[in-house]
Please model this.
Amino acid sequence: MELRQLVTFTKVAELASFSKASVELGYSQSTVTTQIHHLEEELGVTLFDRLYKSIRLTPKGTEFLDYAQKMLALKNEAKEQLLNQSEVSGELRIGTDISLCSSLLPEIFSKYHAKYPNVKFNVETGDTKTLFQLLNKNEVDFIFTLDRRHYDSNILIAFEKKMPMVFFCSAQNPLAEKTVSIKELLSADFVLTKHSLSYREHLEIFLASKLQEIHPYLETNNMELIQQIIELGEHISFLPKCALDKKIKLGKIKEIDVPDCQIYVWLQLLSHQKKSFSLPMKMLVNMLKS
Model:
């Protein structure tokens, strides 16, 4: 069993396609098919059901996927541990939007700096259009986005993770941790991001499909301000759960269960397809994956 076979297997499982996996991995489709066939022969099980123009994991394939992901994560961890930290130096140029700067990225930057103190971060902020312009001009190495799932032939997805959006309120709000319908919820006072942030757009597109709409009493793109307002009153908002985790754990805000409104965004670390990865770039990707 080879590590490259595990990489190929996890990519095929992720994309549910041999052809798409071959494009992302830079292999011919026949190479991908052969690697999966050899893996199945060695394990003595069928990993994928080959249906008409589609594939899906078998129960044994689903079971093995967990092991494959753990083995690849362990490989990345071993590489990090064996690498002399002082050898990793240079600069990482990151582009991102301001909402990520106030939620997820401080923890990521702090963890990376603890591992590789000789790497300097240079962070640029902007909207999605501006970030992709910076990437295409090679003015940043990576962009972090928390948005719809971006895919483009010129873009390399170095890391991605699906993230739920949630409605939330203060711990004292009668709706805290209750289950309600989206129709019931819309009568409440909302504090939302402006239309320039995609979180608002995702919600309004969903509501339009249900012939409903929302009219917040306050709009701002400052996610920290939104959370402070929610903590102090009986208002409701809608943001990625990952941006709220700390305050949810502290009990300052509570999630509202709205089963008939399930919306997701993707946390993605993106680079240009033709970008040559420096050692600091590789270490950031390894850290996120492990």
